[in-house]
């Protein structure tokens, strides 16, 4: 049996949050390629539906969310980064079966239960952050997942639904057989608006110290740089931080040595990302998903807005290459692709 990476953690962990249509094997690899060794510890998959994975027909439609490419796998080993599958749903039996599948059929190092996604149609179905209002069902789900797998188990959630309930909700979760609790400092009602309340996250740390000292507390919300993460660890006592939207502002966030990134480096990464996306998915995944990343790379240089506009009109890697070549010619740059 493999060691529990949560329990042997000795330094603050830094992790990339699970994000829909973002943290697939391709983007995770791009982050790995551009992170400094030992600065990134945990990578999370896209949200994976337990209903879909347990459905005879739906299984093939969602299993790509748990795909790990050979090149990503190699980088994971080289950098000693752990990969965690995040799952969501509301049926305990399906959590059990999904946990079995992940443990037996994939190379993920751990499982995370999504009890925090605030998206309205998901919440209306009784899943994710809706479980904050159903603590007994949340307990059944955790116990079923634990029974289905010996993999390290974490829960990602929020400080409340319509109001802050850190004391009761976090105390409830700390009584469960989990290894880590990832806490986003907003309630469901806020979605992504307003500032994350790190004082409530700090309250969770205090509760953890009293109830279950072995469980790690990871803070999430408004971490915009590696240094900001370190500062929050020191100020609020968490065992690590999770970074979500911050990666869109700076895809080199896990490499503090790259404080300034020039145009050539940005566009080189854009092309590598595009090429890897095409090689990995080979037309089996919508090319349009890739476009959300173009604006990450196209900024802070002359002609960035115009280039981004042109890239948004593309529908293939070849068209992206042509747009980059045209931009390169106009600004007299060489060897971008």
TrEMBL record:
Q: Keywords on this record?
A: Flavoprotein, FMN, NADP, Nucleotide-binding, Oxidoreductase, RNA-binding, tRNA processing, tRNA-binding
Which molecular function terms from Gene Ontology are attached?
Answer: flavin adenine dinucleotide binding; tRNA binding; tRNA dihydrouridine synthase activity
Q: What is the lineage of its organism?
A: Bacteria, Pseudomonadati, Bacteroidota, Bacteroidia, Marinilabiliales
User: Which residues are noted in the entry as FMN-binding?
Assistant: 86, 156, 184, 244-245
Instruction: Domain (DUS-like FMN-binding): give its ranges.
Output: 16-325
Superkingdom of origin organism: Bacteria
Q: Which CDD domains match?
A: DUS_like_FMN (cd02801)
- Asked if the record carries the keyword NADP, the reply is yes
Question: Could you say which cofactors this protein requires?
Answer: FMN
Tell me what organism the protein belongs to: Ancylomarina euxinus
Q: Active site at which residues?
A: 117
InterPro entries per the UniProt record, alphabetical: Aldolase_TIM, DUS-like_FMN-bd, DUS_fam, tRNA-dHydroUridine_Synthase_C
Q: Does the keyword Iron apply?
A: no
Q: What is this protein called?
A: tRNA-dihydrouridine synthase
EC number, as in UniProt: 1.3.1.-
Q: Which reaction does it catalyse?
A: a 5,6-dihydrouridine in tRNA + NAD(+) = a uridine in tRNA + NADH + H(+); a 5,6-dihydrouridine in tRNA + NADP(+) = a uridine in tRNA + NADPH + H(+)
The task this protein performs is described as: Catalyzes the synthesis of 5,6-dihydrouridine (D), a modified base found in the D-loop of most tRNAs, via the reduction of the C5-C6 double bond in target uridines.
């Amino acid at each position: 049996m493999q060691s529990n990476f949560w329990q042997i953690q000795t330094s603050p962990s830094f992790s990339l949050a699970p994000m829909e249509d973002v943290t697939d094997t391709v983007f995770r690899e791009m982050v790995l390629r551009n992170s400094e060794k030992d600065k990134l510890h945990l990578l999370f998959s896209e949200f994976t539906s337990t209903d879909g994975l347990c459905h005879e027909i739906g299984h093939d439609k969602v299993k790509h969310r748990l795909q790990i490419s050979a090149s990503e796998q190699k980088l994971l080993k080289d950098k000693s980064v752990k990969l965690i599958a995040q799952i969501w749903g509301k049926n305990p039996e399906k959590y059990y079966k999904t946990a079995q599948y992940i443990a037996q059929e994939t190379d993920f190092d751990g499982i995370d239960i999504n009890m925090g996604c605030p998206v309205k149609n998901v919440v209306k179905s009784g899943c994710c952050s809706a479980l904050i209002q159903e603590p007994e069902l949340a307990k059944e789900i955790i116990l079923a997942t634990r029974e289905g797998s010996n993999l390290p188990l974490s829960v990602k959630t929020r400080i409340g639904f319509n109001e802050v309930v850190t004391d009761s909700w976090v105390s409830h979760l700390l009584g469960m057989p989990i290894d880590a609790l990832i806490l986003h400092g907003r309630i469901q009602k806020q979605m992504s608006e307003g500032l994350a309340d790190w004082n409530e996250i700090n309250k969770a740390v205090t509760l953890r110290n009293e109830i279950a000292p072995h469980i790690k507390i990871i803070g999430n919300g408004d971490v915009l740089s590696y240094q900001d993460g370190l500062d929050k660890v020191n100020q609020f006592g968490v065992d690590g931080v999770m970074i979500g939207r911050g990666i869109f502002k700076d895809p080199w966030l896990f490499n503090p040595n790259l404080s300034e990134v020039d145009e050539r480096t940005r566009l080189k990464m854009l092309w590598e990302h595009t090429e890897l996306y095409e090689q990995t998915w080979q037309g089996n995944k919508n090319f349009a998903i890739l476009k959300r990343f173009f604006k990450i790379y196209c900024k802070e240089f002359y002609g960035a807005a115009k280039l981004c506009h042109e890239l948004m009109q593309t529908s293939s890697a070849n068209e992206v290459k042509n747009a980059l070549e045209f931009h390169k010619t106009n600004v007299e740059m060489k060897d971008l692709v």
